[in-house]
Write a structure and sequence with these properties.
The strands form three sheets. Strands 1-2-3-7 form a four-stranded mixed β-sheet. It has a three-stranded antiparallel β-sheet with strand order 4-9-8. A two-stranded antiparallel ribbon has the order 5-6. A hairpin with a 2-residue loop joins strand 5 (299-301) and strand 6. The longest helix has 32 residues, at 227-258. The chain is globular, with a radius of gyration of 22 Å. The chain is built from 15 helices and nine strands. Helix 10 crosses helix 12. With 409 residues, it is α/β, with parallel strands linked by helices. The chain has a single domain, classed as Cytochrome p450, CATH 1.10.630. The chain has helices spanning 32-35, 37-46, 69-76, 107-122, 126-144, 153-169, 176-189, 193-208, 214-220, 227-258, 260-268, 273-283, 316-319, 326-330, 350-370, and strands at residues 27-28, 51-55, 62-66, 149-151, 299-301, 304-306, 312-314, 375-376, 397-399.
């Protein structure tokens, strides 16, 4: 069980670290940071810092980022003292906040929505899912394998994930182009409007003609979600399910193309795809910084003052550079100690994580089998979306010898 920071002995000052009020001690988490965050995190650790005051962007205020693995785990596991909303915004006892998605909900509402989503995802047929991924991936590969070049983000990672998630949710095939555009707007402009509009029509259709898909199960669940609640969960499943799956695939491909040791191990088969994806979740997680936590009272972590209700950002990417975990994270096989799925009661549900891993593993396996000689395009410049909470590539141009599609049953 975790406890808040203890009261120091009289005459001693427990605040020994950098201050949120000292501009010289605040690290900028924007501009150059987006290009190479690993260098920033490694420098923080070299300076012996595991809790660091940061600026989130011009005019966006300050926060405290946690890059020490043990501190991160304790904070994620302690929603009592580090909730996901400032205490002043918490619902009163007995009050239920309607029209929230799982990520925003707290207390009984969080438990309610989490159980609904987990049970709805648990009914997905794994064999049918695998077949759907194979069908989508093989069709996409066939569309560009004869060209000798492709952008593996826009031509593979995004469409394969959108196709699979739309199938899981129950979106009809003739709406999937619309879904792809809505996901693109969400990914690049953080605009949920197109996706929300699409979700409303899908929920209305599921109410009229129920099926066995996830949206229908959300509508039919015994917790009796109203339409607005179902729409919110559908948008969440795209934003917190589909988007990370896109970036898990994209970031895995980027590491294969740019990290020689990792790439050779994956392509020769000495490193299985499941272990490779866990490596990606360790060093280039799609969610490099998790949803802010807000201390309910004054806390002190690693000598750094955490004011009440001031945002605390746990960084799975930063924790990967923690010397405490260096030996574990250096292993490419069997490392499951990362925080790529989050932690505590807001951790990604196991059912959702398993679906994302299966989708990425199947899609990547078929791509590597089809185009074993693909490599980064000579003039390629890897760029990242300037987003603190998403580690997402603009694109990943590759070249390969033109080939015919593999025979597909």
């Amino acid at each position: 069980m975790t406890t808040p920071a203890s009261t120091p002995d009289a005459g001693t000052c427990p605040v020994t670290g950098p201050s949120l009020t000292d501009p010289e001690q605040i690290v900028q988490l924007y501009e150059d940071f987006f290009t190479d965050p690993r260098t920033t995190y490694r420098q923080m650790h070299r300076d012996g810092r595991s809790v660091v005051p940061v600026a989130m962007g011009p005019g966006q205020g300050t926060a405290t980022v946690v890059i020490g693995f043990n501190h991160a785990r304790e904070i994620l596991d302690d929603s009592l003292h580090y909730p996901t909303h400032p205490k002043k915004d918490q619902p009163r006892r007995g009050e239920r906040r309607d029209h929230q998605d799982l990520a925003q909900a707290v207390g009984a509402q969080h438990v309610r929505l989490r159980s609904v989503i987990r049970e709805s995802l648990a009914h997905i047929d794994q064999h049918a899912l695998r077949s759907t991924v194979d069908h989508a991936a093989s069709g996409l590969i066939a569309s560009f394998c004869g060209h000798g070049s492709a952008d593996l983000v826009s031509e593979f990672a995004i469409p394969v994930a959108v196709h699979v998630f739309s199938w899981m949710l129950g979106l009809p095939p003739d709406r999937q182009d619309e879904a792809a555009q809505a996901v693109w707007e969400l990914r690049t402009a953080e605009d949920t409007t197109p996706l929300t509009t699409l979700a409303w029509s899908a929920v209305e259709a599921a109410r009229m003609t129920p099926s066995t898909d996830v949206i229908s199960r959300l509508c039919q669940h015994s917790e009796n979600l109203d339409d607005h609640e179902v729409v919110q969960q559908v948008v969440l499943l795209y934003s917190s399910g589909c988007l990370p799956t896109i970036d898990l695939i994209g970031n895995a491909l980027m590491l294969v193309m740019t990290d020689q040791r990792f790439g050779e191990a994956v392509l020769c088969g000495s490193l299985g795809l499941r272990d490779a994806l866990d490596r990606v979740l360790t060093v280039e997680p799609p969610r490099p910084i998790l949803r802010p936590r807000f201390p309910t009272s004054l806390q002190i972590r690693d000598g750094v003052l955490l004011p009440p209700h001031h945002p605390v950002l746990v960084s799975p990417a930063g924790c990967a550079a923690d010397p405490v975990m260096a030996a574990t994270h250096a292993r490419q096989v069997g490392n499951r100690s990362h925080l790529g799925w989050g932690g505590g009661e807001h951790k990604c549900p196991d059912e959702a994580a398993a679906l994302a891993m299966l989708t990425a593993e199947e899609a990547l396996g078929l791509l590597f089998e089809s185009l074993p000689d693909m490599r980064l395009a000579p003039d390629a410049r890897i760029g990242w979306l300037p987003n603190l909470y998403h580690r997402a590539l603009y694109g990943l141009p590759v070249v390969f010898e033109p080939t015919s599609p593999l025979p597909h049953p």
